[in-house]
Amino acid sequence: MKKPLIIIHSLIALFFIVIWLFPTVYNFLILNVCLALIPFDVSILIKYVPNRVIKFALGFIWLIFYPNTMYMITDFVHLYSIGTTVGAIRFNYAVLAMGIFIGVLLGMRSIEMIYETFVQRDSLLWQGAFYGIFSLLSAYGMYLGRFLRLNSWEVLTNWRETFQIIISQMNMQSFEFVIIFGALQLALILIYQSLRRIN
Prior knowledge:
This protein is mostly helical. The protein is built from nine helices and no strands. The protein starts with a helix and ends with a helix. The mean pLDDT is 89.
């Protein structure tokens, strides 16, 4: 486990260095990828922590930050600022795509580890229900982040007002977004799961 983790974190650190050293319009990806890395690292802790109370406490933190992984999909909205010269277009597009793929892949492995830890059932029905529910929850988190600019930290630092906003934003617009992006997430997760099972 140690070697893959070192490789993953080293590659992410290298990605941050590239963004920091070379001119790009996507410096915000450093923060977004960091937020996507949190649930991945937390899911690893959950898997190896023996105490069940701590597991569930960490599970709550994971749930708060997990939408940040799939939220990265919506960062494609920033393609409009990709640049005008050929070199800038290629570089900025590569940086944006890399950041998005890192976030989504971290998310898919993260939720898989959560399933392996808390559910532990090799059943397509259980997997479909589990991933479906969390895809919908995550899609709502994406909606709150993209359109209301809510941050996961606010659930911990200002939970009362954040909870009120979460409840108040349950409307038709958010429902449509949740269905579309929940289905997208579920499809990506199931494809990822199927690919991992190919021998």
